Amino acid sequence: MLENTLKKLATADPKKMITYPLIVFLVALLILVIHFPTLGTDLKGGVVITIHGGNADAKDVESLLKAENFEVTVREIKSITGDTRVEVRASTDVNVQRIIELIKSKYPDATISQTQFGPSLSRTAQEQSLKAISLAFLGMAVVVFLFFRVPVPSLTVIFSALSDMVIALALMSIFGLELTQATIAALLMLIGYSVDSNILLTTKLLRRKEDTVEEAYFSAVSTGFTMSTTTLGALASLWAISQAEVIDMIAAVLIFGLLADFMNTWILNAGVLRWYIQRGEKK
Amino acid sequence: MNLKKLLLNGRVLLLILVIVGSILTIIAQGITYGLDISGGVEITVQLEKPVDQSTMEEVRISLENRLNTLGVKDITLEPWGDQIIKIRVANVTEEEANSIIDTINRQGVFYAEFNGVIFATGADIKRVDQVSYEPREGAWIVPFSISKEAAEKFAQLALGKVSYPVDIFLDPPVNSTLIVSQEIYTLMNSNEFQFVPDAKPLPQRLKEAFNIDVVPYTNQSVEEIAKLAQGKEKVILVGVNGELESTLKNLGIKVEKREPRAGEAADEFIRRILGLYGPYRLQEGLTTGEPHTELAISIGGSKEDIAAMGQAQVVSVVLRSGSLPVKVFVEGVNYIPPTLGEQFRKQVVQAGIVALLVVGLIVYLHYRKARIAIPVVLTSLSEVIAILGVAALIRWNLDLPSIAGIIAAIGTGVDQQIVITDELLGGRKKEKITKRSGILKRMGRAFFVIWASATTTIVAMSFLFKFFVGGLRGFAFTTILGVLIGILITRPAYAEIAKVLLSEER
């Protein structure tokens, strides 16, 4: 069945192939305009106290803290292994030690971790992230141009990397993942993954000598499919087994991006390249 | 089988040497784990302003000395850039972590004041001795010495003023207006802070020494308060509720609000907002007009009185803190209980093993050949070993983001091995008999893809490495390391192995 779908793709009209990924890209942009992922504590500033185990319950923790006039938001996070943790968030000016004392007296068996980010530290982190993302993107664009030296294929590769990141961000917003330093690192990693598959496709199609376009596309997509499934498999096991938040978030964002990349490489970029080759042949 | 030939191939040999070297390094050096795995606290301390390297070093050493007096083991202080110091303490309990944070927060600008006159600042504190118990006085004492100038100034001021209050301050809100609730105002003017009727009350001392106006809140209009704040740095609302804060802010006045913490007594609250330690009662021996450079602060209590001893220790830290050249404050805290970190580490190791197996399984399902799946998994495993080897060699702190980076690098690694495999297999399907030139061309194409994607990943990640102060440098570091090891060592070796294994097929 998969093979048939791929064959259909290989013979589809290039213009049609380009349309759908572009629509997805625009929808993703729209989602981001309406609801950009919320900034995590490390970028916004604030305090997070996490209660692991000890049978803590979000509602009880909330009433316990509200009774002492602490302004907090409390939520419960369930992992697929069945463990729950309770997360208490507050602004930086609260008395963290008092909150922890209260929680400890109620749940003596719980393990408590805490993270605090002051306003100037989070501001620095924001600036650094913005700088890192824009420079990494520019750097990627330059490298891609240097490797191909042809405008249309290079721009398509760059655009699909951008689209991967935008779609991953939109999925983050839908699934309620926060934009943190960890997820930003994952978004940057997507640049690498995306260029990987796109360069594979572009080289196969443009440098092919012995095969037809369809054959080259088919061989590239089968390689690409193996690549994506192995990476997805590795990331999914990471996400499922680990309970550390940093790892879960990095894995989730990479999975989102890889799914987006599958579409952007094998439909969008392939469409553009086939149109580009057809036009070249006509001339 | 061409096993012998394969083992003697330069690229394969290099891979084997690297793996053996890495394993030996890991055994000899051991792997250092980051705090999020070993458990502990990471505190980000920010300096008030950017400083040069020598000042940074001074701050670092003096913070280190002070933290060491807390008796906590394994503290590392690492300056990042010109304004941040990262303090990492492994394996601490929460109480220890809190006392470290308190101590850092207590550093600052020191003043000693008597009857409305500042007689000593941090520079005048020459030495602070160990806190000790004095049985004759029934008190814990903190002996210290001050400069000759400060001693002379103090002697004149203190002449004949037995039992007057002596105040020491750390970071008082200099040049500000305090709008305080009636209750707080009464307490500030009470005997608690004055000791003898002839002494100046606390608000008056604050006014004369620091230009701090203390005004009781009696429903004054916003305009009246704005007038009081003229020429002052800021207005601090102490225990005053209502909309005063926002309306004053709208007038462009800098306003801060202080509320008592849950369970905090009113007098503690006053001391906290003023940065006041004491006041201490002036002993008769110091009121003769004779200058004394050797002084002591005593805190009454029995030898078993832990609270009194704790207070004495705080005073000793406060006295010492005057020597910090620039103000510092805690900007970030990340506390991970040791048991939790251990759990994370186990999960990550499990996840890594499962990930490798899953990759092997998918590769096997795709090619239906164990002789492809097994080398792919083994190559990835050797990549992990090589990354860990380098990390052990340079004693990199392996934290969770670093481990995520390793797995991300393995992800691209497997991708590239598949590109190589497919190029090798693709040639065979069509031509049946492989020509040497065909293989070379196909390998060239595979390595073009590999180099292009490796370059982009390294470029993207090096910006992350360069600009992030936080723990995510670890992610960037291991990713770059993994990609480099991949393109230079493991990928070429895998290509050689695959060539031999796949040509044996026929």
Gyration radius of chain B, rounded = 33 Å
Tally of discrete structural domains of chain B: 2
The largest sheet of chain B has its strands arranged as 2-3-1-16
Q: In the CATH scheme, what's the topology name of the largest domain in chain B?
A: Multidrug efflux transporter AcrB transmembrane fold
Count of distinct structural domains of chain A: 2
Biggest interface:
A-B, 77 and 78 residues
**Hey, roughly how much beta strand do the residues of chain A contain?**
5-15%
* Largest beta-sheet details of chain B: 4 strands, antiparallel
Helix/strand-derived category of chain A reads alpha+beta
Strand count of chain A: 4
Provide the helix percentage of chain B. 40-55%
The CATH architecture name of the largest domain in chain B reads: Up-down Bundle
Describe this protein's structure.
The complex is a heterodimer of chains A (about 280) and B (about 500). With about 280 residues, chain A is of the alpha+beta class. Chain A has helices spanning about 1-10, 15-35, 40-45, 60-65, 95-105, 120-150, 150-175, 180-205, 215-240, 245-280; strands at about 45-50, 75-80, 85-90, 110-115. In chain A, a hairpin with a 5-residue loop joins strand 2 and strand 3 (about 85-90). In chain A, helix 2 packs across helix 7. By secondary structure, chain B is α+β, with helices and mostly antiparallel strands. Chain B folds into two domains: about 5-35 and about 335-505, Multidrug efflux transporter AcrB transmembrane fold, CATH 1.20.1640; about 110-305, no CATH class. Chain B has helices spanning about 5-10, 10-30, 35-40, 55-70, 95-105, 150-160, 180-190, 200-210, 220-230, 245-250, 265-275, 305-320, 340-365, 370-395, 400-430, 435-465, 475-505, and strands at about 40-45, 75-80, 85-90, 110-115, 115-120, 125-130, 130-135, 140-145, 165-170, 175-180, 215, 235-240, 255-260, 275-280, 295-300, 330-335. In chain B, about 45% of the residues are buried. Classes of the chains: A alpha+beta (about 280), B alpha+beta (about 500). Chains A and B meet through helix 5, strand 4, helix 6, helix 8 and helix 9 of A and strand 16, helix 13, helix 15, helix 16 and helix 17 of B.
